[in-house]
Design brief:
Two copies of one chain form a homodimer. The first copy, chain A, is an alpha/beta fold. Helices cover 40% and strands 16% of the residues of chain A. Chain A contains ten helices and eleven strands. In chain A, a hairpin with a 2-residue loop joins β9 and β10.
């Protein structure tokens, strides 16, 4: 029987546990606090940032949106520095992408690694690769937290990651390597893609194409993680042909309702951990 | 016929070319300059730093050894900062390991990425993973420069890297991923190691055990890179059983005389490139 890795269920459970940890912190006089930096007027980003703030508040984490409708690189850098240096704030997140003309590298470089709860900076990526303390990028944390919740025992498995993005594929591989886990990373347009995907005892697909991975590309018994979000006529589809692959896999994430719901839960978890580390 | 990837020959050739580039820089009034920081009294490190300085001078690159026989973290950080801020110096290298009590992370964090010609900092590793401009760690640069010299056409091949060290395996995988090259990284103690090594069209071995990779573990026609340096009764042996594997591979590095000689040549190449970038 295939296990459905239900991100809605797992994130609700995780948020419930975090509530308890937040109360314990508050009893010690620490209010876990996240600063969300929003630059420009992109409607999607605004909505997403507001959603993050609402979810924080639900578990008792203080969330403040710092909105700069228009800003130079210097103004963004100095806001990041100010929040980075404020001891009452435990996590700082810069909503990406930044508007054209604002230097993302410089803005992120100003963020101290111990407050980089969304895992956005080069320093964090370097630490990830070295196996030093850091918060992995949200997309990576979301996948790992989901698999840990379902206890699929991924550490002794061979991972295959399809898709080499800066926010999922590459940092996920870096984290696995730093834990001594063997991993194959392959570009989605590889001419012998199926030969590689069939090696995966855990298969992570981040391709951006509806149903790019079919049943015959999956190793029987594999754990399949679908990071796709492909919109077609108002419906969302994964990168994996869920109905076919569920017959082959031992566990699989649905889309929607798999990795997606874990993203914000993971951000809040990191903020709580940063507050615990500071307390 | 197997091609022997001769690092002595390739590094001599590279250094010859660098001489010309150094002369061109000097004609424009720029003297490429490397600062070598040595902390403590380790005899091996002292010898290695002196060797680096001598090789620099041979091609006209100025090399200054800054030796602190004893130093606190603060003293090392302030030396790194001073050299990092000096516009007449193009590359800064901190000889590792630092003596106990000196915080390596803090010392390296003070090094500006554009002068990190030995690829030591977390910022560099993050850039490597993202595919941004940086100098890869010496061990990675040495391998790539050697393969490029022999034009083995590695970009469309599947790479397998055995060994997950901070200075070779992990950053090499990061660089390959950032170029869209598919790569499998596997720990040397993996129970099915041979299954993975046989996948490698390019196989890089960095294990630290004499002849850990035998002929039956190598895919016929593979390019084999041996990063081993195992001393036994005054002789040095690779991680690959060279005599047996040369009958299977299409190209192979010898030990000694393979990757080793490329390390210093690559450091000097990076220093010259840093000088060119600043000029």
């Amino acid at each position: 029987m295939v296990v459905i890795l239900d991100g809605r269920e797992a994130s609700a459970q995780l948020l419930g546990e975090l509530k308890g940890r937040v109360e314990a912190l508050k009893a010690r006089g620490v209010v876990p606090s996240l600063a969300l930096i929003l630059v420009g007027e992109d409607e999607g980003s605004r909505r997403y940032v507001r959603m993050k703030a609402r979810r924080c508040k639900k578990v008792g984490v203080e969330a403040t949106i710092h909105h700069l409708p228009e800003a130079s690189t210097e103004e963004v850098v100095s806001l990041v520095e100010r929040l980075g240096g404020d001891p009452s704030i435990h996590g700082v997140m810069v909503q990406l992408p930044l508007p054209e003309g604002v230097d993302e590298d410089r803005a992120l470089a100003a963020l101290p690694p111990e407050k980089d709860v969304d895992g956005l900076t080069n320093e964090t990526l370097g630490r990830l690769l070295r196996g030093e303390r850091c918060y992995p990028p949200a997309g990576v944390g979301a996948i790992l937290v989901l698999l840990e919740r379902y206890d699929v025992g991924y550490e002794d498995k061979h991972w295959v990651v399809v898709g080499l993005s800066d926010i999922v594929g590459k940092p996920l591989a870096a984290l696995l390597m730093s834990r001594g886990i063997s991993v194959t990373c392959v570009a989605p347009d590889h001419p012998r893609l199926g030969d590689y995907t069939r090696m995966g005892e855990v298969l992570v697909v981040d391709v951006g194409r509806k149903w790019a991975v079919t049943a015959e590309m999956v190793r029987p018994g594999a754990v399949v993680v679908d990071n796709g979000n492909n919109y077609e006529e108002g419906k969302v589809y994964g990168d994996v042909d869920f109905e076919a692959v569920r017959g082959v896999a031992s566990a699989i994430t649905p889309v929607p309702g798999g990795v997606g719901p874990m993203l914000i839960a993971n951000l809040i978890k990191n903020t709580v951990e940063a507050a615990e580390a500071s307390a």
